[in-house]
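Class prep. Sample record?

___
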Amino acid sequence: MLALLLAAAATATTATPAPPAMQSAAKPAIVRTKDGRVVGRETTIPFASQQGLYSWTAGPTDSSVYVQDNFGKWYLVKMAGPCMMNNIGIGLAYSTGPTGSFGPFSKIYSTEPPHMSCPVISVTNALPPASHRKDRKEKS
């Protein structure tokens, strides 16, 4: 009987933790907007064809803009290729997808020369751009 217990103990395996090099990296912290939306998550802007978009400002690249809906929510819109060249002095117009939402089937147009048309490739939830944040520090 003792031999059976020793044999069983010898064949029993115990889980050992993986070495630190094989463990996955720590998950990045999830950043949320004040209304709980996850920043960077793909989305669409519902009812853009009826309620419109309130404002826009230049994005971090030549192929992106920040847009704000009529509820005060900010989104980062990425376009196919350099398009608006961060020219915040031009007016913008847009078309929505078939459901009236603003998203990857939409386009952004400049209303002034050179009248560019820019296909939207993604819309993600965003924090307000730095120029529109209430908590930004004023420079003296």
Summary: Residues 42-132 form one domain. The chain has a mean pLDDT of 79. The radius of gyration is 25 Å. Residues 98 and 105 are 8 Å apart (CA to CA).
